[in-house]
Q: What sequence folds into this?
């Protein structure tokens, strides 16, 4: 099922991790596919939906180099697939792990298409294509080279794995400053003017008020982690959130200040 959230902007949500796919319609029926996901059958269905609507994939974009955001299918054709240069490098280094993770959770993907990305060409902060302006908001908050897509004409922010209503902020704990990186990325997204619709990588689409609420919830969570205390975050509740509670414990252990030092 596709939901149209703005003129020419559609979102499909997989039942697996509530993973979203965003489709932006451009000129001549060409489309930008952002983070197409998640199962092999769902990608085949996406190709069928495009064909039934007289549309085609003109360009693909991956917001960051995690397995569930670097997928593709033969049914989507051979459009160029972009990510930031840093994300492309990270995906190349982790290719075997990406393939293993995809096969473990969503078997059946063609390995030839998993993680095959190229750096966004050009010097500007936008994806070059025949369609609405698609600006890149790059940061390292969740993964190296993570970059949301901002569609200013539609007021749509495709945030990647940020600002979710079902997942806590998941830090790149291997980074030198996981909390600082995440706060910087959150600040960049929150400062965008005129957000009318927010598409998280996992979860539900939000309006302007919902976006502000998610920013506040994420800031509260980051403050708790920086202080080395439990967050009391509603996203950590329920039997299905056991893996998030494990991630929260890992983030607390990884980012906790050394004894005798105040949080910065």
A:
């Amino acid at each position: 099922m596709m939901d149209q959230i703005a003129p020419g902007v559609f979102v499909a949500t997989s039942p697996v991790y509530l993973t979203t796919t965003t489709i932006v319609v451009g000129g001549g029926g060409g489309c930008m596919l952002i983070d197409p996901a998640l199962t092999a059958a769902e990608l085949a269905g996406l190709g069928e939906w495009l064909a039934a609507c007289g549309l085609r994939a003109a360009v693909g974009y991956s917001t960051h180099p995690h397995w569930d955001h670097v997928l593709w299918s033969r049914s989507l054709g051979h459009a160029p697939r972009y990510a930031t240069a840093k994300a492309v490098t990270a995906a190349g280094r982790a290719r075997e792990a990406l393939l293993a993770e995809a096969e473990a959770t969503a078997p059946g993907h063609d390995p030839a298409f998993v993680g095959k990305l190229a750096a966004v060409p050009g010097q500007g902060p936008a994806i070059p294509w025949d369609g609405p302006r698609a600006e890149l908001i790059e940061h390292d908050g969740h993964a190296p080279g993570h970059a949301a897509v901002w569609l200013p004409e539609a007021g749509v922010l495709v945030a990647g794995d940020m600002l979710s209503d079902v997942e806590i902020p998941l830090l790149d704990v291997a980074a030198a400053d996981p909390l600082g990186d995440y706060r910087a990325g959150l600040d960049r997204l929150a400062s965008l003017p005129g957000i009318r619709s927010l598409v998280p990588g996992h979860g539900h689409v939000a309006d302007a008020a919902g976006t502000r609420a998610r920013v506040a919830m994420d800031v509260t969570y980051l403050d708790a982690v920086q202080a080395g205390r439990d967050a009391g975050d509603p996203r950590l509740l329920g039997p299905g959130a056991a893996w998030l509670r494990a991630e929260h414990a890992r983030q607390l252990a990884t980012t906790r200040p050394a004894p005798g030092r105040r949080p910065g």
The longest helix spans residues 208-227. The chain has one domain: 2-255. The domain at 2-255 is CATH 3.60.15.10 (Metallo-beta-lactamase; Chain A).
